[in-house]
Design goal:
The complex is a heterodimer of chains A (114) and B (111). By secondary structure, chain A is an all-beta fold. In chain A, 0% of the residues lie in helices and 50% in strands. Chain A contains no helices and eleven strands. In chain A, the strands form two sheets. In chain A, strands 2, 4, 5, 6, 9, 10 and 11 form a seven-stranded mixed beta sheet that branches. In chain A, strand 5 and strand 6 form a beta hairpin. Chain A starts with a strand and ends with a strand. The radius of gyration of chain B is 13 Å and the shape is globular. In chain B, strand 6 and strand 7 form a beta hairpin. Chain B is built from no helices and eleven strands. Helices cover 0% and strands 59% of the residues of chain B. Chain B is mainly beta and 111 residues long. The chains are: A mainly beta (114), B mainly beta (111).
Amino acid sequence: EAQVTQNPRYLITVTGKKLTVTCSQNMNHEYMSWYRQDPGLGLRQIYYSMNVEVTDKGDVPEGYKVSRKEKRNFPLILESPSPNQTSLYFCASSPEGLVTDTQYFGPGTRLTVL
Amino acid sequence: KQEVTQIPAALSVPEGENLVLNCSFTDSAIYNLQWFRQDPGKGLTSLLLIQSSQREQTSGRLNASLDKSSGRSTLYIAASQPGDSATYLCAAEYSWGKFQFGAGTQVVVTP
């Protein structure tokens, strides 16, 4: 089944403890992206990647890191999480990131930072 | 900076009525405008994508229009059903690979 998977789905952690949220897609898509969703704010883009080894900042990259070492995986790294990073995170992918390509979303990761 | 607004934030209609959802964006230089549906506890599902050169797209009971000059897109859902209850989000691609989402309109269709 074609899909975007995220792990973990739920995570409760404490301030300052490094964590990684994994994202993987099995559709051979070039483009991948991370978003966070907060009540009343909609989705805000954190980072995106047009292809392997190429990443760019979205609107809210502070406090996050990403890497794209292989096409199928795009992990989101929080080196020192803070409570303001408590949010619902979504990973998405699209075939080539062209303006005609729609995005396919993962199920989301709900992160709580205490 | 591109801003995308969706009004109203919530909407309730009886089954069978047509739904009209609005999306406004501040910068008309967009690459495309996309509509998504989000069900509680789940990810987003793409509904329609309108390229900047297009005026509308249709899929079944769904029709989306795009007016770049006025900075507006409208999603029409004909003959609404309880299964249409969800949150609908629009997103503007304003730079290659960069997206700005609206906060969404939560729709409830009552039987």
